[in-house]
Amino acid sequence: MISFKEVNRKLGRFEVKAASFDIPEGCICGLVGRNGAGKTTVINMLLGLIKPDAGQITIDGMDYENNEKDIRKLFGFVLVDELFMQHLSPEENGDHFGSFYEAYDKEEYRHCLERFNISGRKHFKELSRGQKLKCQFAFALSVKPKYLVLDEPTANFDPEFREDFWKIVQQFTSNGINSVLLATHLTDDLDRMADMLIFMDEGKVIYNGDMESFRQRYRILSGEKYLLKNIAKEYVINIEEGKYSSKALVINKHGFTDGLTDSPATIEEFMYHYSKRGDAK
User: Fold this and answer.
1) What is the value of pTM for the model shown?
2) Which of 69, 150, 200, 209 could pair with 33 in a Cys bridge, judged by C-beta atoms 3.0 to 4.6 Å apart?
3) 48, burial (CB in 10 Å: exposed 0-12, middle 13-18, buried 19+)
4) Predicted pLDDT at 153
5) Which DSSP state fits 124?
6) How many C-beta atoms surround the C-beta of residue 99 within 10 A?
7) Are 222 and 250 in contact (CB under 8 A)?
């Protein structure tokens, strides 16, 4: 299990503040929030690329201070930054970086490149952005990780490959042991596929939990404005008024729905209304 307990990290004027969450085994977990919310900082701390100022990060009960080598064996990752060397081919990059991983499987890497329609012999710099991400995804799978950490990979994948990507992710977690943490702006995919969600805003974890609880807690109510205005303010995150009908994101409570249309909030709806919120949280 991945565990953050009251983790803080300040970078210039920005700060991740008291971030706490657990990602259990066998889980697809979405990490979402606006640009600058703190997602990449959390990922960099999880991978040991930067250290927290305070709090505790443990992976399977281990911490980086005492178990860095053992922890690094557990992770495969795809980051926004291109880590592969531009002047080498994908196969040469695999040989180079694979030498740092005991579990690296060269044949698995080649198989993934072939499945993703990537030439193993072109220079890495000749590949498109999407192809480069596919190479790094192939490498991440080939080191036989327990945890995959993926920072915004799907935005550069074509729609056909995105479907294949999600099949691979589901297969990866199907053993009930492996887990995936995926930061993405493509929230429609997470609505369909994620087991858990972490939503960050201004360096704070606003929601962390399973998707079923998220859908039960946050609701979209639609109907006449006066009915929405009658809801107690402490349960209202945002009301968007329309000419003929209005919508509100609310924290669920029985008795709200008389005369209103009630549906679970999608992640995109939640993020939109949260960004427009007033004083009610």
Assistant:
1) 0.92
2) 200
3) middle
4) 80
5) G
6) 9
7) no
